[in-house]
Amino acid sequence: MLERSMTTAAPRRAGASILAGPFAGHRPPTRTRRAFSLVEVSAAIVLLAMLLSLSVKGLSALSASQRRIEQRGWAVQTAASVLEQATGRDPAEIDSAFVQQMSASAQVQQTVPGGQLTIDVSEVPAAGETRVARRVTVVVGWNDRAGMPVAPVRLSAWVHPLAQIADTSTEKQTVETGP
Fold first, then answer.
1. What does the pLDDT look like over 104-121, one tens digit per residue?
2. Whether the model pTM is above 0.90
3. Rounded to whole angstroms, how far apart are CA atoms 150 and 158?
4. DSSP calls for 99-140
5. Number of C-alpha atoms within 13 angstroms, CB side, residue 72?
6. For residue 173, with 0-12 CB atoms within 10 Å meaning exposed, 13-18 middle and 19 or more buried, which class applies?
7. Spatial CA neighbour of 108 closest among 136, 85, 75
8. Measured distance CA(71)–CA(141) in Å, rounded
9. From CA 4, how far away is CA 65, in angstroms rounded?
10. What is the mean pLDDT of residues 142-168?
11. Which is more confident, 48 or 164?
12. For 36, which of 17, 28, 47, 97 is 20 to 30 Å away at the CA?
């Protein structure tokens, strides 16, 4: 009988489904998703919180850097202004009274919070001359928000007294070298 059932069965086509009956050729029904699970929502919230935290830290660091750059720019402008005022004077006028006047200037306090202005004037005799040149050094220092001193801005210039210039425009000497 076993032999007979095998011989009487219809031959199967290639690729035909093994299942017979109402599910022949169909997939079993699957459940469709309509919402996120609680774990997925929690993971998304944690990732967003981490990204927000990193962006806030980055923005605060950028703001602090910008503030330091702005303060340094103001310090350089202040030092350059004071140095220009000093070098525009006759060297004999650059004395302790000028230094006191510039050090007490409200310009430094307005531009750089907690700023200190130091002006150093040193006399250096010129080699082989009776004239004395003056070296003017302007230093602007300040403290950061934490009260720590920041590297100061330092500018220097030399001020030489004007020499008596003889009018030699009518006569010019030329030196020629030949073979």
1. 566 666 667 778 888 888
2. no
3. 26
4. HHHHHT-HHHHHHSTT-EEEEEEEEEEPTT-S-EEEEEEEEE
5. 12
6. exposed
7. 75
8. 10
9. 92
10. 76
11. 48
12. 28
pLDDT, greater one: 132 or 4: 132
Q: Given a cut of 70, is residue 20 above it in pLDDT?
A: no
Strand partners, 157: 136
User: Please, what is the average pLDDT of the chain?
Assistant: 75
Q: Tell me how long the chain is.
A: 179
What ranges do the domains of the chain cover?
40-159
**Rounded mean pLDDT, 17-36:** 65
Name the token pair of 73: 């720019």
| Rounded (5°) CA angle 143-148-149 | 55
DSSP string, 151-172: PPEEEEEEE-PPPPPP--SS--
- The DSSP string of 32-77 is PP-S--HHHHHHHHHHHHHHHHHHHHHHHHHHHHHHHHHHHHHHHH
